[in-house]
Amino acid sequence: MKAIRRFTVRPVLPEPLHPLSDLARNLRWSWHTDTRDLFQAVDPDGWQAAGGDPVRLLGSVSAARLTELAQDRRFLRRLTAVADDLDDYLHGRRWYQTHSPEAPDRTTALDPAIGRDETPFPTAVAYFSPEFGVTAALPQYSGGLGILAGDHLKAASDLGVPLIGVGLLYRHGYFRQSLSRDGWQLEHYPVLDPHELPVTLLREHDGNPAHVSLVLPGGRALRAHVWVAHVGRVPLLMLDSDVEENAPGERDVTDRLYGGGSEHRLLQEMLLGIGGVRALRIYCRLTGHAAPEVFHTNEGHAGFLGLERIRELGEPVESGGHGLDFDAALEAVRAGTVFTTHTPVPAGIDRFETELVARHLGERAELPTVPVDRILKLGQESYPGGEPRLFNMAVMGLRLAQRANGVSTLHGAVSRDMFAGLWPGFDADEVPITSITNGVHAPTWIAPEVLRLAARRIGVGRAEDALSAGNPERWESVGGIPDIDVWELRRTLREQLVGEVRRRLRASWHQRGAGAAELGWVDSVLDPEVLTIGFARRVPSYKRLTLMLRDRERLRELLLHPTRPIQIVVAGKAHPADDGGKRLVQELVRFADDPRVRHRIVFLPDYGMGMAQKLYPGCDVWLNNPLRPLEACGTSGMKAALNGGLNLSVLDGWWDEWYDPDFGWAIPTADGSATSEDRRDDLESAALYELIENRVAPLFYERGPEGLPRRWTEMVRRTLAVLGPRVLAGRMVREYVERLYVPAARAHRLMDTDTSRELAFWKQRMRGAWPQVAIDHVETLEQTTDERSAELGATLALRVRVALGELHPEDVEVQAVAGRVDLDDAITDARTSPLKPVGSGPDLEGRWIYEGPLTLDHTGPFGYTVRVLPAHRLLASSADLGLVSLPVETTGETGGVVLR
């Protein structure tokens, strides 16, 4: 019989074991080996059955065992040591506290909850994301975006960065994947009970659950409770709409990740952005946590948070607001907002019909005090090639943020090109989107065996510090590890993977309907002595799961080579609505089911964090073959590298940036618009087979006198010592702090009420007066060289005549832009230099004269032009307003000059 109601009966821990509860509720255990070992000692069999989840473990351990442990002095000493270590971790000074610049910044903050601050570092940063992959015990992620967000929180905790995460609690998570007998992907959505998860309900001081509420069209309301997960030092707030006060439709808003139609997704993103800010305010009020100065929007899904902050600032002073109009509030919000884009293709961005957005954010729904026409303009694709009827969440995210970034150097360039329409008149490389390359949280992804090997070299504490802070000098010590130790480590990890694969493969075939008598072959799947290649990721078409199957006979020959065989472990999920992706999975599964090769290639269903933590360390080579440049970063190869895995990848994402022959191999790409998709796949798959057969496999099997592959082990050492510190999430978070969070906090503090209004008025004046700005004439004065015989190092003296209309010289900057030119006379590596106004006022025709030197610092074709840009001390970029005036000459010189 089935129960009509389910609830969790919590164990009563004996008083000496009370610290176990705190240890279980702080997710630091997910990356702290000593804590996990302690819980395993509570009940080894129960730990395995609980999937390594301390909360589930404590819910199942017997009272007799707890009584026994409460009297076990050795266990209690271990418990005290681990609990003390957690306390030191939570309250001790870390990188953020010891590296904050000493120069005080005491400008008044706009938010009265912040007051004055003594350091340029932000008092707190709010990090919004639609998904967070912290641990398999809290399945609130679908793929790379969520894993990256989880690693960001964990690295921030290790560094002591005062981050607060904000997301949603999905009652069904993403989905669990299994396979039908014929290899078709099946989805399952198990219900998650928050009371069985490592989270705590946020409550008011009177004990009632804290809640946020949004107004919906038709007089409806969307209410949500707030659950808190403690990710080390970082609180993660997750909003949950499955509350009794909601109608059935509203209860289902947080039912599953990336599910439902447009309105469902819109409600999720309203709850994440608008509701998330309200949950944040409640949390800070109840706990005394510092109010965030910086708001980090991780992808466009959370973009509505900026609208809620505009609403807050527009509230009357007597209601706790600042009485700012929309434009002034917008400037205040932009100053402290950072936006990170993760997609290299427009199809990956959420877009809604403008009517749908207007209906949910208009006068009779949420945000009635914010002009809906201004909201719609923030998300409007008002640029060539855009669709003005659609509301683009990434476009809104960029317009609401003063600082933005892509997630690798190449992705930053792709993003600048993709969003260039928002900054008309500027070359793509001047679009104000920078890049910070993603990293991965080493303590989460590194195998314990790798950590122990490092600890033997430099000590446990120094090894843990190197993993979190990324001290390159400590990583270099790996270079002294003997070949035999490196090779034994790799073999041990490969052997563990073989056992894991066999266990999972047997379970998968049982789910597919196979009986035990059919599965004797599983015991011979994979070989710990064979070169092992891993490929695991989501299954959109651009990641090309089946590129390896392009020439199946060639692949079979590689798998079954008599002296240099390879074996491949594959995993990945297709989106439930993506039948094309499911067909790719089925195609791969059917190939792997072939009795001729099934001992050499396997597909493991239900790819997730638990599987990944075994898969990355056990693979000798990590394969990645996306369509370049559609992989924004692709961090799976980083996780393999941290365990000594070598990368075999297309030069895309992070690999384009850090590829080195010491770290692996680059798959050549067939770039060019003239190449068809089929032809490109043929060429690149052939290159992949060629690399594996002639370069990768021979290197693995080429053994010296001692039976060791010397060159291979040297590449493993170089990967660990040189690439290791680069791929750390600690390095990534430090870059966010120094390059984006600190400037955003400073800008936020400058934006008091008067300054916000001043900047908004100035921008309005600039937009109105800009059509009158023009460059009338450009000339070279008496000069040290003749343009026709220009020499390297020579100087040209430029004079420019500019019409400013109603503007003044302090409103603008006049620049010379110079550099090499291509065959179309476009300046390719432009450098700018300011020109200065001459005289105390305009000439008789109202024109201002600007002059300045231009140094010829390049040989070969060289060109220059001039331009006028808005200038204000509070602008983060001269492209901020998207306004620029360029020459349109008719007086002897063209808009630019080329010297050949």
Automatic annotation (TrEMBL):
Pfam families: DUF3417, Phosphorylase. The gene is glgP. It comes from Streptomyces albipurpureus. This is glycogen phosphorylase. Its EC number is 2.4.1.1. It comes from the Bacteria. Belongs to the glycogen phosphorylase family. PANTHER family: GLYCOGEN PHOSPHORYLASE. It catalyses: [(1->4)-alpha-D-glucosyl](n) + phosphate = [(1->4)-alpha-D-glucosyl](n-1) + alpha-D-glucose 1-phosphate. Residues 13-138 form the DUF3417 domain. Its cofactor is pyridoxal 5'-phosphate. Keywords: Allosteric enzyme, Carbohydrate metabolism, Glycosyltransferase, Pyridoxal phosphate, Transferase. The lineage of its organism: Bacteria, Bacillati, Actinomycetota, Actinomycetes, Kitasatosporales. Gene3D superfamilies: Glycogen Phosphorylase B (3.40.50.2000). Phosphorylase is an important allosteric enzyme in carbohydrate metabolism. Enzymes from different sources differ in their regulatory mechanisms and in their natural substrates. However, all known phosphorylases share catalytic and structural properties. InterPro entries: Agluc_phsphrylas, Glyco_trans_35, Glycogen/Maltodextrin_Phosph, Glycogen_phosphorylase_DUF3417, Pyridoxal_P_attach_site.
